[in-house]
Every structure is written in C-alpha cells, then in structure tokens.
Amino acid sequence: MSSLLSPSEVARLLNLHPNSVRRLAAEGKLRSRRVGWSRVFSLEDVQQCAEERRQRRQLGRNRRSTGRRCLSGHDGAAQ
Q1: Among 55, 59, 39, 50, which Cα is nearest to 16's?
Q2: 10-residue stretch averages of pLDDT, the chain, 79 residues long
Q3: pLDDT of residue 76
Q4: Which residues lie below 8 Å from residue 13, measured CB to CB, with a gap of 6+?
C-alpha cells in the first residue's frame, strides 16, 4: 500500500506553497485522489513529479544559458 500525503506534506517535500500543490493537481500536473472533502497524494506520484520538475528546471537552465551566449554576440571566448 502506498503512503498518502496531504497537500501540506507535499508542499514541504516539493518546496512549494500548499496552494501551488493544489493548483498542480487541478491542472493535472500532479496526480491526486479525493477522500471525502480532502485531496491526498501518493508518495510515488509526488516523487515522480519532483523528478519531472527537476528535469524541466535543468532543461530550462540549459536553454537560458545558450540563449544568453547567442544574444550577447560572442561565444564566450576571451578576446
């Protein structure tokens, strides 16, 4: 059986505000389940989301750094 986490617990794990966790769930970016009036998250789903977010951030850093070099007009070599 998988561990179930509250939005506050997920927020602590992902370093987000609980409302951001709820928004990710509402947008379908983080799987959740309703239990009565509460929304719960499985630890496995949270870990998968964390890994996907880490990969996207890394991809974004690579794109931004490449874009800066292109826009600066030089390739970073010393003159």
Answers
A1: 50
A2: 89 94 94 93 94 87 55 43
A3: 45
A4: 5, 46, 50
What is the gyration radius of the CA atoms in the chain, in angstroms?
18
Contacts 24+ apart (CB under 8 A), 49-58: 49/14, 49/24, 50/13, 50/14, 53/14
Q: Which pLDDT belongs to residue 64?
A: 57
What are the structural domains, with CATH classification, of the chain? 4-67 (1.10.1660)
Q: What is the pLDDT of residue 59?
A: 85
- Say what the pTM is: 0.69
- CA 69 → CA 8, 37, 56, 63, 65, distances in Å? 40, 50, 20, 10, 7
